[in-house]
């Protein structure tokens, strides 16, 4: 898989893409991630990438031409399955979307900034808009990192134990059951006996019951889907 991330603040992506599971996946050659500084495609002497909005609204808007030129260059080199824009009014990122994107070959993620991007980019270049929640951030770099992390960890070989992702919250529409490790008792707090029983059938049944109970108690909306 290849992911190209387009941003005016590439420094914001250095840490989340350079550590942990994403870094290991990159080191293994499972995913190639290229971060492109849109300013390098800016216009004129000062590499301008934003301008005042028509209509007089407050805030600067990312210009169409630098983004168009960069995306056109990338598309001339390979085909992309999706050109994603990180937008607060896009579809809310879910585990299902992450699963879907994880089997794609090439993705572009455009990070919004300032007041937003010229709407013609959204009309003619973007194929999918994704939000990480109903709130506004200073830019799309953090959402882009979240989307990348959610997708990359699902690529076969990215996790040390590939079955680990199958038991994550939301993977089956439910929250994950509680997990415990050694010691079996600490400060009078005990691990449930069933987890120490060594009986896979009883453990699996307990985990299913706990997942359903936690979902019903903490996220009942998931059961209505």
Keyword list:
5-stranded parallel beta sheet, Trp Operon Repressor, Chain A, 225 residues, 19% strand, Alpha/beta knot, 7 helices, 31% helix, single chain, 2 domains, two-stranded antiparallel sheet, alpha/beta, 9 strands
- What about the largest sheet? 5 strands, parallel
User: How would you sum up the global shape?
Assistant: elongated
The proportion of strand residues reads: 15-25%
Note the total helix count.
7
Structure description:
There is one protein chain. The mean pLDDT is 93. The protein has 2 domains: 2-152, Alpha/beta knot (3-Layer(aba) Sandwich); 169-224, Orthogonal Bundle (Trp Operon Repressor, Chain A). The two termini are 31 Å apart. The protein has helices at 14-17, 20-27, 64-75, 95-102, 119-124, 141-152, 200-218; strands at residues 2-7, 32-37, 50-52, 60-62, 82-92, 106-111, 128-131, 185-186, 189-190. The longest helix is centred in the C-terminal third of the chain and has 19 residues, at 200-218. The strands form 3 sheets. Strands 2-1-6-5-7 form a 5-stranded parallel β-sheet. The radius of gyration is 21 Å and the shape is elongated. It contains 7 helices and 9 strands; from the N terminus they run βααβββαβαβαβαββα. It is an alpha/beta fold and 225 residues long. A hairpin with a 2-residue loop joins β8 and β9 (189-190). α4 packs across α6 (141-152).
